[in-house]
Amino acid sequence: MSQPVVNGSTNRGYFFKFEARGYLPYISRLVNAKEREATLDITLEPGSSQTLHVVDSGGILVPGVPVLFLNDKKFIFRTPAGFEYLRWRSVNVETDANGDVPLELDPGLGRILICCPRGSASPFKSDLAENGVVTLKPWGQVKGRVLRNEAPSSGELVMVVAPERIRESVTPLSSLLFDATTAKTDEQGRFTLTNVPPGESYLLVTRTWSAPSGDTQAVLESKTQIKIENATPIELIINLPQSRLSKADLTTK
Question: Edge-to-edge, what's the strand order for the sheet holding 90-94?
Fold first, then answer.
């Protein structure tokens, strides 16, 4: 059988799944829809298939949840509505009416991403429990105030970014916004970030400016490591020094 890479009008290609009684299933490489001929060298490994059982933080099975299998080192932004986009080799399926989904055992797809309004999880296959149960952790909330020289600072861009998305101190703003949960501070310097993925991440405070090329750049002025473990809000007060850039150079978008 074959599975489209993404749903929609554009055919990005296909993965081919091979199954045989007494052997583990195998998912092929991506076969581009424009390939006139494809050769696949497949060797099935003996064994029995496993099943993932997805439950929420209360232990209740969760049906109809998108489950993504992908390369260990790849990152995909997730929200309660699902995966923001799929740009890497991956297999996207859903749990059945019992909250179950077959565990794809392609050696190249060792990480699992699950997300829905009831929570999220991102285990590695090697860390799965023997019973195959994956427990979703609730989305988090981060709120607080940004001060500059002890005074409330409005219009600051605050974002929560996964550790693997952190780059240099000056980076194109769009590359961070693409994979981040963001908010701006109000007149009192207050901010609230909702639907923050569980696990470790960084809270960044940035100022923006226009580079000579005309591109908007983000200067990272504060980086705070946080960890979302439950639905209890994390509260922070961040005190920044005077901006490193002159007021004439800064443009708050």
Answer: 90-94, 66-70, 111-116, 119-121
